[in-house]
Amino acid sequence: MTQIVFLLVPGLHLLDLAGPAQVFSTAAHNLDGAPYRLRYVAEQDDVPTAQGLPVRATTTWPELEPGDIVMVPGWRWGTGNPGWGRVGAATASRLAAHHQNGGTVASVCAGAFALAAAGLLDGRRCTTHHELQDELARRHPRANVVRDVLHVTDGRVVTSAGIASGIDLALHLIAVRHGPGAAARVARAMVVYARRNGDDQQIGAMLRHRSHLNDAVHRVQDLIDARFAEPLPLSALAAAGGVSQRTLTRLFGAATGLTPLRYQQLLRLEHAGHLIGQGVTVEAAARAVGFQDARMLRRLRSRTGATAARP
């Protein structure tokens, strides 16, 4: 029986906790040979959360074995609430001791600061939420902060970006222990669209180019997001936005810095990268995202600095 021990810190984000907990709970229910037992510990019985729903935990740590995982969900940063994000010296020592005894320690979002307080990030590659990366590097200069990735593993210390990326981290740990197929089964049971790779960007194309306020461009992006694998003539996109083709080209460029075609290509590249990272050949990934063959996919991946996988 493998224990997944969640260390709950005051001010924690519910999804930082619930996402990974759901992954391991689903694995225990759906996978043969995956007997996981979830436990929740804290420095106090009642733990306030950033979303206002208090959670209860035990203050007594279980006996830990090397195969167990201790995970620290993140918390809301910079609120001024006294005690939020606080990890005492005794708790930090427990984290360090578990790792020293051969165990795995993981964090989601600001949970990386708890691992850093335990000395577990010194000299190691790590990551955290993109808004906290500079602060982590400033406070802990011996940590090698890797920016704009979903999760990083270095010497049984696993750190991930913010909020929903905890699901990716937990699926990664399932894949390491039980294989990619098992992780895919868990993701499917959870209705997770795709298991993202650790080196995927924290902010995908849909988020990077959606911060504008132009309704017409958003309507066009909605169509491209839903049908990126299909041929989408500019006339059809303009009709979706309720503007002329010329006006769409001008508005789209002003709002996103891209043409509609380039935005569609970025989505295709991202989705192809997910497929290739899960073992799909370049040719099959190219066809799945709408390219006629792999040559265009390889060319675009080369232009964006992506490393083209071998067929």
TrEMBL record:
MF annotations from Gene Ontology: DNA-binding transcription factor activity; sequence-specific DNA binding
Keyword annotations: Transcription, Transcription regulation
Stored InterPro entries: Class_I_gatase-like, DJ-1/PfpI, Homeodomain-like_sf, HTH_AraC, INH-QAR
SMART domains the record matches: HTH_ARAC
Domain of life: Bacteria
Residue ranges occupied by any HTH araC/xylS-type domain in the UniProt entry: 218-311
Membrane spanning residue stretches: none
Protein name, entry field: Helix-turn-helix domain-containing protein
Source organism phylogeny: Bacteria, Bacillati, Actinomycetota, Actinomycetes, Streptosporangiales
